[in-house]
Write a structure and sequence with these properties.
4-stranded antiparallel sheet, 3 helices, 4 strands, 110 residues, 23% helix
Length: 110
């Protein structure tokens, strides 16, 4: 999948739309405004991460930086989502567990 891009009608403030989205996801108005200053909303895919029982970290994947998200489930299991962008293509890999094998699997995909 190619990386997403957004085009908007003239006069629509994409940054303000992004700020409102962040507020809907739980940020205060001030937090959303501050965070939004560092985001290019025309080329950024926002993935909401649940606030509780979820961890995430950046890590090297396939020669670029990716993000590993791990969610603890109610039955004491966990599941992971590994996402990264390389050469304008968005990749993701998901499965059960803590993601310890995800980078190894991702590095074999060529």
């Amino acid at each position: 999948m190619t990386s997403p891009t957004i085009s908007a009608p003239p006069g629509l403030d994409i940054q303000k739309v992004g700020e409102v989205f962040l507020q809907l996801m739980g940020m205060t108005e001030e937090e959303a405004a501050q965070f939004s200053q560092n985001v290019d909303w025309t080329t950024t895919l926002v993935i909401p991460i649940p606030r509780y029982a979820t961890t995430y970290r950046e890590m090297p994947v396939d020669g670029v930086t990716g993000t590993l998200i791990v969610e603890d489930l109610e039955n004491n299991d966990s599941q992971y989502l590994l996402i990264w962008v390389k050469d304008g293509i968005l990749y993701s890999l998901t499965g059960p567990g803590d993601g310890s094998s995800a980078v190894r699997i991702a590095d074999t995909l060529h």
